[in-house]
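pipeline/complex-builder :: batch 7 item 3
reading input block
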Amino acid sequence: MTYTFDFSFLAEYWPQLLKGLAQTAQLSLLSIIFGFLLGTLLAIGRTAQSKLLRRVCAIYVEAIRNTPLLVQMFMIYFGLASVGFKLSAEFCAVLAIVINVSSYTCEIMRAGIESVRKGQREASDCLGLTWLQSLFLVVLPPATERVYPALVSQFILIMLATSLVSQISAEELTSTAARIDSMTFRSFEIYTVVALIYIGLAFVFRLGFWALSRLVFPRLRRLGTPL
Amino acid sequence: MSPIVKLNNVSKSFGSLHVLQGVSFDVAAGSVVAIIGRSGSGKSTALRCINGLEKINSGEITVCNHHLHHDVTRAQLRALHLDVGIVFQSYNLFPHLTVGQNIMLAPRWVRKQSKPEAREHAAEVLRKVGLAEKFDAYPEQLSGGQQQRVAIARSLAMEPKLMLFDEVTSALDPELTGEVLKVMESLARDGMTMVLVTHEMAFARGVADKIVFMHQGRVWEEGGGEMLSAPQTPELRQFVGNGL
Amino acid sequence: MLTTFQMQALLTAAVWTAGLSLIAFVLGGAVGLLIAVMRVSANRVLRGIAFTYIQIVQGTPLLVMMMLAFFGLSILGFDLAPFTAASFAMVIYSSAYFGEIWRGGILAVPKTQWEAAECLALHPVQRFWLVIIPQGLRISTPPTVGFMVQIVKNTSLASVIGVAELTYTSKLINNSTFQPFIIFSVVAVLYFCMCYPLAWWSRKLEDKLNVAHR
Ligand SMILES: Nc1ncnc2c1ncn2[C@@H]1O[C@H](COP(=O)(O)OP(=O)(O)O)[C@@H](O)[C@H]1O
């Protein structure tokens, strides 16, 4: 092996990588927030009284979960463009990822909602809370707390999956890497650096979500035990 | 004075299982009524029908001037729940909220009380059940008896006109039963109207103004505490014989 | 609509997708088992290595791994065979996840089984491989099958280094026909046909296991 590794491109290109990192972080957080909201909504539908609503949500979830994100992304990006919607690649990227995360979040949150015993709902009904109030005050908080670790794993996977948006030429870390690669031809080196950045970002996300859990679950902060 | 609760020929079935078959009884304002009977006789179901947790198939229930029949709406039920409190066998405290938050939840969101107001009120009902110092504890940090007393306090905070108790001591160790019964006794002394399903015969005899003995989905016998010493029906005689 | 030729191309591509999935499952499973065993081993160094491996792989996007495999292998002097590089990346990727899934399964084997195994006249190593491992794997069949769905879907990333699997082929066809909704729907359906049975099976297994544990 006569290959010599050369990381000297970093001196010139690190600001671009930093920008890509920021874009990836932003893309991930946007997708996670909206994906979580949509997914929770779907989970509510999935556990609703109406059989039709349950069915519709189930079909949506199965359709999304059993097809690749990349294909979904192409469908949205190229598909919408072909019928005249000229949307930015970034928007399509977020849209595709949100749809994707929502279906996974739905299944996780459904498990959480189902873990809340029927008596809890009865008790809140009997205290005079409305359906919406019991949902938001009594059912969703413990449901979310119980499945939080699973949600975090899912969110980390989503952060990694944002790299796919480079395939519809949206701007983020991986597409930045591809651009630098095309100018420097240090392919292996640049992707090694990018991999390390992702590993670091995954670590930071884990840390961030841990801190968030202490913030939003006061019981967990005080007692430190799972619910 | 007209009764605060009136069940008139109430029937309820789960599928083909006829759990209540024409149940009628009254609860006078300020009185304590104990429902007793063998397990499976429909006691809990009768109690749950009173605050609409189970929809009845036929008959009529009047509770604090709310009329329940087979097609009662959600809005009607909500109005009813503002007047009627219930305490369950399994406490059903909200595990993610502190004791204080459990109690303040409904006053704040349903009665729209301000935070200081709700807080003061919560502290007061908590004192009443003897747990003033547990305001900031989480339910899981309390014993079963303490949790059940918090559940009673949570109901009390909504200032109900009527309180229902569904086998509230059945899940408790014998040594924890007493503290809960004591709280209920003091409520009765304060003039709270109460309907309770219970297996505690001594308590029923001592506290209840009226005892309703249910058997196979019917009111088999009803009367004052003395009824237990002089049962009229062989079923009650057998039940009392086993129970005492 | 699609021509017969395009349809044939897609079906051939589907075979590549299935082949890549199979490689990821079999070889990734083999490496994954090793990782799982290292993760529960008494040796701290082995545990540490396996842990680090999993952290690194699970912290790197598969797409970046594809690139690294593709360019890395060529640096090592291997021929530029995209399929080989993709297989390599998929095996590494799936081994880390299998390692984690099976570690959970092995740890979930009841203590009594470990004790019971000690009574058998078996060497400790035999005990582990013949008694504990099979049970651990059995416990983790539902998530294992569930992860196979992820494998199938994630082979779509091999398209970025030019492996002519389903996604790559669909993109080629789209470039010439400009009917993205049709072509990508057809491809989505093909993926669905491969994934849904696995997802369904995984759920069935889970239900069965839950019943058995109740
Ligand atoms: N939600 C329900 N669905 C079906 N059957 C029920 C339900 N609730 C109670 N039952 C049945 O109704 C009968 C009476 O129950 P219950 O009122 O709880 O009796 P008790 O309180 O006297 O023990 C029992 O046979 C019970 O199995």
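note: The mean pLDDT of chain A is 92.
queue -> next item
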